[in-house]
Amino acid sequence: MADTLNPPGQVPVTVLTGYLGAGKTTLLNRILSENHGRKYAVVINEFGELGVDNDLVVDTDEEVFEMNNGCICCTVRGDLIRIVNGLMKRRDKFDGIIIETTGLANPAPVAQTFFVDDTVKEKTRLDAIITVVDAKHLPQRLIDSAEAEEQIAFADVIVLNKVDLVSPDELAEVEAQIRRINKYAKIHHATKGNVSITELLDQGAFDLNRVLVHAPDFLTSDEHEHNDEIRSMSFEAEQPIDAERFNAWIGALLAEKGGDMLRTKGILSYEGDDRRFAFQAVHMMADGDFIGPWKDGEKRVSRIVFIGRNLNRPQLRRGFESCQVA
Predict the structure, then answer these.
(1) Which CATH number describes the domain made up of 11-214?
(2) Whole-model pTM?
(3) 258-279 per-position pLDDT tens digit
(4) Count of CB atoms within 10 A of residue 29's CB?
(5) Residues contacting 155, CB < 8 A, separation 6+
(6) How far does CA 292 lie from the centroid of its chain?
(7) pLDDT one-digit tens code per residue, 212-227
């Protein structure tokens, strides 16, 4: 039974969560690109000094708000409340709000935001927590990350992504692991987030009563933990990047250190090309593509973010800067 504490007529809010590299931004782009006739305000929270996720989101008419350098459930919760309250003043310009959390966020405090602030509670309705799960890497994530388990536990809808990368037996075991954590969430199998939008938005799926069974102090507790071993390091390069040099460096780096690198992502300015190149990797698995031209007057600065364990900042900086055209 859906939560009945929120009266009708409020703005539906979808919280999009999932561990680093699970495919949240890919799913968000699918939502924003489909011809569903609706407009969404998007709030993105990143873990790191430099933001690149905003550039990874498709160029649409939606308003995108980026909150960097903090967990959405900690230091920037006040920012989230201010953004949502500000959005309410332009209520006629969008049909709903989508919040994409950092991959290290526990979704419980994020959801809690919509019950602890009176103005937000009055004008918005938490519609669903959607958790994107990486079918390939979930077993390891459940061993080394409490956040991955919490993201599943609080989910109303689970997008079990990257099913093309596992065998049928592996998929069945991953789904069994999910069910041991959350018996109630609806599970959708996906490759690159190919789930119908009608299965994700306007679900009325958030059930406060079920959440209170899992976390009785949900409405009152501000305590949660983070994995302090994980660090984010970000670098910029003002000179164009030599594509061959970058591919050789990042390939060797991921082959050697990929086990510790949970997530790598960047926006690159390649020499001789007017398009932005988006690079992304999860452990040793890397991908990339051009995502459109640099805007007129935009400074063509390449940015890259590494999120993982045992990261060597000087080594990573030297390596990235060595990819610049002299």
Answers:
(1) 3.40.50.300
(2) 0.66
(3) 888 877 888 899 999 999 998 8
(4) 18
(5) 17, 107, 129, 130, 131, 182, 185
(6) 21
(7) 666 666 556 555 454 5
